[in-house]
Amino acid sequence: MKRNTVLGVLGVFALSLSVYTDAQQPSTFHGEISDSQCALNVHSLTKSHEEMLKSKSGAAGGNRSSCSLYCIQHLGGRFVLASKHFVYHLDDQELPRNFVGEKVRLHGILDPKTQIIHVVAIDVE
User: Fold this and answer.
1) Can you give the pTM of this predicted structure?
2) In a domain, 78, yes or no
3) 3-state class of 103 per DSSP?
4) Is residue 103, in this structure, part of any structural domain at all?
5) How many domains would you assign to the chain?
6) What is the residue range of 111's domain?
7) CA–CA distance from 38 to each of 4, 17, 35, 41, 60 (Å)?
């Protein structure tokens, strides 16, 4: 009887460990490296860079990359991954700088509670 109980407990432990390990494996996400200001409609009505790029001041430059860098440097934005239906916050704010404005394949681990991706690697699509 004790042997069966011990084997049962060990089996449940092994199963829970495998589920935990699978949850920690990096996933692949697709989207554009953008800034939180534009992607989350802080100063945009279309979840895009259009309003900033059309502004009369021209401070945001003329493309997505310059707009994101402007919003991050001057308006308190942070790098995010903007996909078609969702905006993911990124824990690493240095690596995305090399891909700002680009469509990318991002490998990382999503924290389901905070919706923040721990960035492992980024590749241009």
Assistant:
1) 0.76
2) yes
3) strand
4) yes
5) 1
6) 26-124
7) 58, 40, 6, 5, 11
